[in-house]
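Lecture notes, unit on protein representations.

Consider one protein chain, 176 amino acids long.
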Amino acid sequence: MNMAATTVVRPGLDTLVTGVSRITARRLGRRESAFAVADLLRDHLPGLDLLTPHELAGSPGGYVNHLLHAEEDFSICAVVWRPGQDTVIHDHVSWCTFGILSGIEHETLYRDMGDHLVEIGHADNRPGEVSGFAPPGDIHKVRNTSAEIGVSLHVYGANVARLGSSVRRVYDLPVR
């Protein structure tokens, strides 16, 4: 296990790193990995004390992604969203599992029809809820619809420190 990317001791992070390392070492498929990590995260979802007060403040310019740990097979990030902040429509380079620590993440799901996108569903993810997904079929947009700072913990099946991002593609297609 490579702990080099973990720069600050954070409550609960070591348990997650150890657990995710054990899961990724099993070399499961993408969906199976996402669901196994979701089960782990449900049992060990950390609290807001995972982040410093400065990190919890977010940024008026957009959501902030704090890389907490990265190694070749996975990364753990905390995303901080001020009310109303959102992402562009995108998909991911790998499977992902996320847990909500605060706020409400409204997620809209899409299907790529070639020349346009079709909305296929939505969900309001609330504190304590955990979910996971794997490409293909992971095209979405996320928005903090609550009046409070939103914080979510994301585990990606890729080294986002090396890649620079978990996003594979941004979709600039019309939604019909």
